[in-house]
Specification:
This protein has 237 residues and is an alpha/beta fold. It is built from 11 helices and 5 strands.
Length: 237
Protein backbone atom coordinates (compact mmCIF):
# COMPACT_ATOMS: atom_id res chain seq x y z
CA UNK A 1 0.00 0.00 0.00
CA UNK A 2 1.35 3.43 -0.94
CA UNK A 3 2.16 5.96 1.77
CA UNK A 4 -0.41 8.36 0.28
CA UNK A 5 -3.21 5.77 0.50
CA UNK A 6 -2.32 5.11 4.13
CA UNK A 7 -2.23 8.85 4.87
CA UNK A 8 -5.65 9.38 3.25
CA UNK A 9 -7.15 6.46 5.17
CA UNK A 10 -5.92 8.02 8.42
CA UNK A 11 -7.22 11.48 7.46
CA UNK A 12 -10.61 10.10 6.42
CA UNK A 13 -10.71 7.79 9.45
CA UNK A 14 -10.98 4.66 7.33
CA UNK A 15 -8.83 2.41 9.48
CA UNK A 16 -10.76 -0.68 8.41
CA UNK A 17 -10.09 0.00 4.75
CA UNK A 18 -6.41 0.63 5.48
CA UNK A 19 -6.15 -2.71 7.28
CA UNK A 20 -7.89 -4.53 4.44
CA UNK A 21 -5.59 -3.01 1.82
CA UNK A 22 -2.56 -3.80 3.94
CA UNK A 23 -3.64 -7.47 4.13
CA UNK A 24 -4.14 -7.86 0.38
CA UNK A 25 -1.92 -10.49 -1.15
CA UNK A 26 0.32 -9.17 -3.95
CA UNK A 27 -1.11 -9.99 -7.37
CA UNK A 28 -0.80 -8.86 -11.00
CA UNK A 29 -3.74 -6.54 -10.32
CA UNK A 30 -2.23 -4.86 -7.24
CA UNK A 31 -1.01 -1.80 -9.13
CA UNK A 32 -4.42 -1.22 -10.74
CA UNK A 33 -6.21 -1.70 -7.40
CA UNK A 34 -3.91 0.78 -5.67
CA UNK A 35 -4.37 3.31 -8.47
CA UNK A 36 -8.16 3.00 -8.25
CA UNK A 37 -8.13 3.30 -4.45
CA UNK A 38 -5.86 6.34 -4.56
CA UNK A 39 -8.13 8.06 -7.09
CA UNK A 40 -11.28 7.26 -5.07
CA UNK A 41 -9.73 8.38 -1.77
CA UNK A 42 -8.41 11.63 -3.26
CA UNK A 43 -11.90 12.39 -4.59
CA UNK A 44 -13.49 11.64 -1.22
CA UNK A 45 -10.93 13.83 0.55
CA UNK A 46 -11.62 16.79 -1.77
CA UNK A 47 -15.38 16.29 -1.45
CA UNK A 48 -15.25 16.31 2.35
CA UNK A 49 -12.95 19.34 2.32
CA UNK A 50 -15.38 21.26 0.12
CA UNK A 51 -18.33 20.30 2.32
CA UNK A 52 -16.36 21.48 5.35
CA UNK A 53 -15.65 24.84 3.70
CA UNK A 54 -19.28 25.36 2.70
CA UNK A 55 -20.47 24.45 6.19
CA UNK A 56 -17.90 26.76 7.80
CA UNK A 57 -19.14 29.72 5.74
CA UNK A 58 -22.78 28.81 6.43
CA UNK A 59 -22.35 28.54 10.21
CA UNK A 60 -20.02 31.55 10.68
CA UNK A 61 -22.98 33.93 10.82
CA UNK A 62 -22.12 36.34 8.01
CA UNK A 63 -25.04 38.73 7.36
CA UNK A 64 -24.33 38.56 3.63
CA UNK A 65 -21.69 37.11 1.32
CA UNK A 66 -18.83 39.45 0.42
CA UNK A 67 -15.50 38.57 -1.14
CA UNK A 68 -12.29 40.41 -1.93
CA UNK A 69 -13.19 40.27 -5.63
CA UNK A 70 -16.32 42.32 -4.89
CA UNK A 71 -14.32 45.22 -3.42
CA UNK A 72 -13.86 48.41 -5.40
CA UNK A 73 -10.28 48.81 -4.22
CA UNK A 74 -9.82 52.36 -5.53
CA UNK A 75 -12.66 53.56 -3.29
CA UNK A 76 -11.20 52.09 -0.10
CA UNK A 77 -9.38 54.37 2.37
CA UNK A 78 -5.60 54.49 1.91
CA UNK A 79 -4.85 52.29 4.95
CA UNK A 80 -7.14 49.54 3.67
CA UNK A 81 -5.46 49.59 0.26
CA UNK A 82 -1.98 49.41 1.78
CA UNK A 83 -2.90 46.50 4.09
CA UNK A 84 -4.93 44.55 1.51
CA UNK A 85 -2.23 42.03 0.54
CA UNK A 86 -1.40 41.38 4.21
CA UNK A 87 -5.05 40.76 5.01
CA UNK A 88 -5.51 38.47 2.01
CA UNK A 89 -2.65 36.15 2.94
CA UNK A 90 -4.15 35.68 6.44
CA UNK A 91 -0.70 35.71 7.99
CA UNK A 92 -2.14 37.59 10.96
CA UNK A 93 -4.15 34.47 11.87
CA UNK A 94 -1.02 32.36 12.09
CA UNK A 95 0.57 35.01 14.30
CA UNK A 96 -2.58 35.41 16.46
CA UNK A 97 -2.70 39.12 15.67
CA UNK A 98 -5.83 41.25 15.88
CA UNK A 99 -7.19 43.49 13.12
CA UNK A 100 -8.85 46.77 14.07
CA UNK A 101 -10.72 48.86 11.49
CA UNK A 102 -11.70 52.27 12.79
CA UNK A 103 -13.49 55.03 10.90
CA UNK A 104 -16.79 56.55 9.88
CA UNK A 105 -19.60 54.45 8.43
CA UNK A 106 -19.81 53.56 4.75
CA UNK A 107 -16.09 53.16 4.05
CA UNK A 108 -16.01 49.38 3.58
CA UNK A 109 -15.23 48.10 7.08
CA UNK A 110 -17.98 45.47 7.23
CA UNK A 111 -17.46 44.41 3.60
CA UNK A 112 -13.74 43.92 4.23
CA UNK A 113 -14.37 42.10 7.52
CA UNK A 114 -16.78 39.66 5.84
CA UNK A 115 -14.38 39.09 2.92
CA UNK A 116 -11.58 38.23 5.36
CA UNK A 117 -13.88 35.92 7.30
CA UNK A 118 -15.13 34.08 4.20
CA UNK A 119 -11.57 33.59 2.94
CA UNK A 120 -10.52 32.27 6.36
CA UNK A 121 -13.42 29.78 6.33
CA UNK A 122 -12.38 28.58 2.90
CA UNK A 123 -8.87 27.99 4.20
CA UNK A 124 -10.19 25.84 7.06
CA UNK A 125 -10.05 28.37 9.88
CA UNK A 126 -12.89 28.48 12.40
CA UNK A 127 -14.70 31.82 12.12
CA UNK A 128 -17.58 33.48 13.98
CA UNK A 129 -19.11 36.79 12.86
CA UNK A 130 -21.19 38.83 15.33
CA UNK A 131 -22.30 42.39 15.81
CA UNK A 132 -20.69 43.58 19.03
CA UNK A 133 -24.03 44.47 20.62
CA UNK A 134 -25.46 41.08 19.62
CA UNK A 135 -22.55 39.22 21.16
CA UNK A 136 -22.77 41.21 24.40
CA UNK A 137 -26.47 40.30 24.63
CA UNK A 138 -25.56 36.62 24.17
CA UNK A 139 -22.93 36.85 26.91
CA UNK A 140 -25.37 38.51 29.32
CA UNK A 141 -28.04 35.89 28.60
CA UNK A 142 -25.51 33.08 29.00
CA UNK A 143 -24.50 34.42 32.40
CA UNK A 144 -28.12 34.62 33.51
CA UNK A 145 -28.69 31.04 32.36
CA UNK A 146 -25.48 29.74 34.01
CA UNK A 147 -23.81 28.72 30.74
CA UNK A 148 -21.32 31.58 30.43
CA UNK A 149 -18.29 29.36 31.03
CA UNK A 150 -19.34 27.07 28.18
CA UNK A 151 -19.95 29.98 25.77
CA UNK A 152 -16.63 31.64 26.63
CA UNK A 153 -14.83 28.34 26.09
CA UNK A 154 -16.47 27.93 22.67
CA UNK A 155 -15.62 31.46 21.57
CA UNK A 156 -12.06 31.21 22.84
CA UNK A 157 -11.41 28.27 20.49
CA UNK A 158 -12.48 30.18 17.36
CA UNK A 159 -9.54 31.09 15.11
CA UNK A 160 -11.11 34.39 14.02
CA UNK A 161 -13.80 36.23 15.95
CA UNK A 162 -15.24 39.15 13.96
CA UNK A 163 -16.96 41.84 16.02
CA UNK A 164 -18.76 44.31 13.79
CA UNK A 165 -20.09 47.78 14.63
CA UNK A 166 -18.51 48.39 18.02
CA UNK A 167 -19.80 51.78 19.11
CA UNK A 168 -23.07 51.93 17.19
CA UNK A 169 -25.02 50.64 20.20
CA UNK A 170 -23.82 51.09 23.78
CA UNK A 171 -24.24 48.51 26.52
CA UNK A 172 -24.07 48.64 30.30
CA UNK A 173 -20.99 48.10 32.46
CA UNK A 174 -21.90 44.46 33.16
CA UNK A 175 -21.97 43.75 29.41
CA UNK A 176 -18.71 45.65 28.93
CA UNK A 177 -17.03 43.54 31.62
CA UNK A 178 -18.18 40.32 29.95
CA UNK A 179 -16.85 41.46 26.58
CA UNK A 180 -13.55 42.38 28.24
CA UNK A 181 -13.42 38.90 29.81
CA UNK A 182 -13.86 37.28 26.40
CA UNK A 183 -11.32 39.44 24.59
CA UNK A 184 -8.78 39.08 27.40
CA UNK A 185 -9.12 35.27 27.20
CA UNK A 186 -8.25 35.38 23.48
CA UNK A 187 -5.22 37.65 23.96
CA UNK A 188 -2.26 36.28 21.96
CA UNK A 189 -3.99 32.90 21.50
CA UNK A 190 -6.42 33.73 18.66
CA UNK A 191 -7.27 36.63 16.36
CA UNK A 192 -10.11 39.09 16.81
CA UNK A 193 -11.22 41.51 14.10
CA UNK A 194 -13.13 44.60 15.27
CA UNK A 195 -14.83 47.27 13.19
CA UNK A 196 -15.80 50.52 14.89
CA UNK A 197 -17.03 53.99 14.01
CA UNK A 198 -15.28 55.35 17.12
CA UNK A 199 -11.66 56.37 17.50
CA UNK A 200 -9.89 54.56 20.36
CA UNK A 201 -10.11 57.68 22.53
CA UNK A 202 -13.91 57.40 22.32
CA UNK A 203 -14.24 53.73 23.29
CA UNK A 204 -14.85 54.74 26.89
CA UNK A 205 -18.31 55.86 25.70
CA UNK A 206 -19.07 52.19 25.04
CA UNK A 207 -17.25 50.59 27.98
CA UNK A 208 -18.10 53.36 30.49
CA UNK A 209 -15.11 52.68 32.76
CA UNK A 210 -11.76 54.36 31.95
CA UNK A 211 -9.62 51.68 33.59
CA UNK A 212 -11.50 48.87 31.84
CA UNK A 213 -11.24 50.65 28.49
CA UNK A 214 -7.51 51.26 28.93
CA UNK A 215 -6.88 47.62 29.88
CA UNK A 216 -8.89 46.40 26.89
CA UNK A 217 -7.12 48.69 24.43
CA UNK A 218 -3.75 47.68 25.84
CA UNK A 219 -4.48 44.03 25.03
CA UNK A 220 -6.43 44.35 21.80
CA UNK A 221 -4.03 46.79 20.11
CA UNK A 222 -0.86 44.92 21.07
CA UNK A 223 0.78 43.72 17.82
CA UNK A 224 -2.49 44.47 16.01
CA UNK A 225 -2.99 45.62 12.43
CA UNK A 226 -4.75 48.96 12.87
CA UNK A 227 -6.51 50.38 9.80
CA UNK A 228 -7.70 53.97 9.71
CA UNK A 229 -10.89 53.59 7.66
CA UNK A 230 -11.90 57.24 7.73
CA UNK A 231 -13.04 58.46 4.33
CA UNK A 232 -15.95 59.41 2.13
CA UNK A 233 -18.90 57.07 2.52
CA UNK A 234 -19.60 54.83 -0.48
CA UNK A 235 -23.25 55.78 -0.07
CA UNK A 236 -22.46 59.43 -0.76
CA UNK A 237 -20.51 58.81 -3.97
Amino acid sequence: MSARIEELCRTLRLSGLAASVRDLEPSPCSEEINAFLLHALENEYELRLERKRVNAVRTAGFPTMKRFDDLVVDLLPEDARSYLSLLKDLEFLKEHQNVLMVGNSGTGKTHLAIAIGVLACEQNYRVIFKTTAGLVNELVEAKQERRLTYLLRQLKRVDLLVLDELGYITFDLAGAELLFQLLASRYETASTLVTSNLMFSEWVKVFHDKSLTAALLDRITHRALVLNMTGTSFRQR
